[in-house]
Write a structure and sequence with these properties.
heterotrimer, A alpha+beta (238), B mainly alpha (121), C mainly alpha (113), A: 238 residues, alpha+beta, Ubiquitin-like (UB roll), Fumarate Reductase Iron-sulfur Protein, Chain B, domain 2, 2 domains, five-stranded mixed sheet, two-stranded antiparallel ribbon, 15% strand, B: mainly alpha, 3 helical TM bundles of succinate and fumarate reductases, 0% strand, elongated
């Protein structure tokens, strides 16, 4: 085990490149620790995002040795056993500067997919008693832990190839809401997730499922949307 | 919004079985689509009578053509098996065992290809 | 093309795929049978000539592939070649018609020659 890590970090915007830093290796070190060390001790001009640093906010997502990960939950010894690290911003999103990407299109697509709750009740109505073990609720529960970190979005080739594609996170959210008995937006949501920009553009590459840090399977959610939209089409509801 | 750079995902993020399955399915589909007109054209020789088709088929008896035939049959079997896997992943409610469909699809592909190979060589 | 029409294309492609799953299985089995028994062109044509069963089967096969393949190629042209929405629709139509014509001609060739 080397006592130093050779770290390449993306610097710049469109005119940029990888800059090299040498960082001391420590036990139980995470990639976020490495980035923080560089910014505090070596190069204060480095821009990067983080918040909770304990794996619950998703802000620190970056491309580490070519794979999108949460840097606070990625141990250096797991991804760089030979002491070589390459850190870049998330793929498929515009780069603001260095390791910071512009998340706006990611969240805009969430809205375009009708990935938000359409309420039916008011505060004066009794609370809906949702049974946890119905198939619909189980389908919803399988996807609601998403924290919008964009790792899946960054990992998806269809997002890269098709600029309008809503992406795995937005579609996963749409599916959880389709299965939420309290939500009233099914009709508009099915229309929103249909077509070349919607669930039908998914080719089941499963990079989203492979890399999701919460072990969600957006591929499963998207398959559910495919079935729901086809059923609606055949029933004349779409 | 000139010149905003967007990072591209690297092959390292794509190095997993379901992605290889996608790539094989897409490439086999493209190759089969390119092959198909050739196949239809070849069969069209029968319009000139059996002799015409027969002489064409004698031409196909060379090793390179035979090898291509085996390749096409294997690609077809691969595309079929991969397609069946996709239809199951999309139309059956998600289950854990579906992950193993990939292995089954691969097995079917190799099976068909082998049977053809053993018969044509 | 509207999202609804795009969904219809997707559905047609999947339905085409299901039909092709049957056709391709039969076709592969037939080819393996033919090769295993060393059938010559004459022998094969003897079986297909005037045979409405085989003709019907292969017409279905050709039509299914004329639907399935072009829709797939349309997506690939958009994703990998960067063709415009307009251009990919032209590719779809052209390829579909071309495959159907050449394919049905081939079916005619083995049925009526």
């Amino acid at each position: 085990m080397t006592d130093k890590i050779d770290v390449s970090v993306w610097r710049g915007t469109e005119q940029g490149g990888f800059r090299h830093y040498s960082v001391p290796r420590l036990a139980s070190q995470t990639v976020l620790d490495v980035v923080t060390y560089i910014q505090r001790r070596l190069d204060p001009s480095l821009a990067y995002r983080f918040a909770c640093r304990v794996g619950m906010c998703g802000s620190c997502a970056m491309t580490v040795n070519g794979v999108a990960r949460w840097t606070c939950r990625t141990h250096v010894e797991k991804v760089a056993p030979h002491g070589v690290l390459e850190i870049a911003p998330l793929a498929n999103l515009p780069v603001i500067r260095d390791l910071v990407c512009d998340m706006r299109s990611f969240f805009d697509k969430w809205v375009r997919a009708e990935g938000y709750f359409h309420p039916t009740a008011t505060r004066t109505d009794p609370i809906v008693r949702v049974q946890p073990d119905t198939p619909a609720r189980r389908a919803a529960d399988a996807g609601i832990e998403c924290i919008g970190c964009a790792v899946c979005y960054a990992s998806c080739d269809v997002v890269a190839w098709n600029v309008d594609y809503l992406g795995p996170a937005a579609l996963n959210r749409a599916w959880t809401l389709m299965n939420d008995e309290r939500d009233s937006g099914s009709k508009v949501r099915l229309a929103a997730v249909s077509g070349d920009a919607g669930c039908h553009a998914c080719h089941t590459q499963m990079s989203c499922t492979e890399h999701c840090p919460k072990k969600i399977a957006p591929t499963a959610a998207i398959a559910g949307l495919k079935r729901a939209t086809l059923a609606a089409l055949l029933a004349g509801r779409l | 919004m000139g010149g905003i750079r967007i990072m591209k995902s690297s092959w390292r993020a794509h190095n997993h079985p379901a992605y290889w399955a996608f790539m094989l399915h897409r490439v086999s589909g493209i190759l089969l689509t390119l092959f198909l007109p050739l196949h239809f054209w070849a069969l069209g020789h029968a319009l000139g009578g059996t002799a015409k088709l027969e002489s064409f088929l004698i031409w196909t008896d060379q090793p390179l053509v035979k090898a291509s035939e085996i390749a096409v049959v294997t690609l077809l079997a691969a595309h079929l098996a991969g397609g069946l896997r996709l239809l199951m992943l999309e139309f059956l409610a998600w289950r854990d065992w579906q992950q193993r469909l990939l292995a089954i699809a691969a097995g079917i592909t190799v099976g068909f290809g082998l049977v053809y190979l053993l018969n044509v060589v | 093309m509207s999202p609804r029409a795009q969904l219809q294309l997707w559905a047609a492609q999947r339905i085409g795929a299901a039909v092709l799953a049957l056709c391709v299985t039969v076709h592969l089995a037939t080819m393996i049978y033919a090769v295993h028994h060393g059938l010559s062109a004459t022998a094969i044509l003897d079986r297909t000539r005037g045979n409405w069963g085989w003709a019907g089967f292969y017409v279905l096969f050709v039509l299914a592939v004329s639907v399935h393949a072009p829709i797939g190629m349309r997506t690939i042209c958009g994703e990998w070649l960067g063709l415009s929405d307009r251009a990919v629709d032209v590719v779809l139509a052209a390829l579909g018609v071309a495959l159907a014509i050449v394919g049905l001609r081939a079916v005619w060739a083995v049925f009526a020659s």
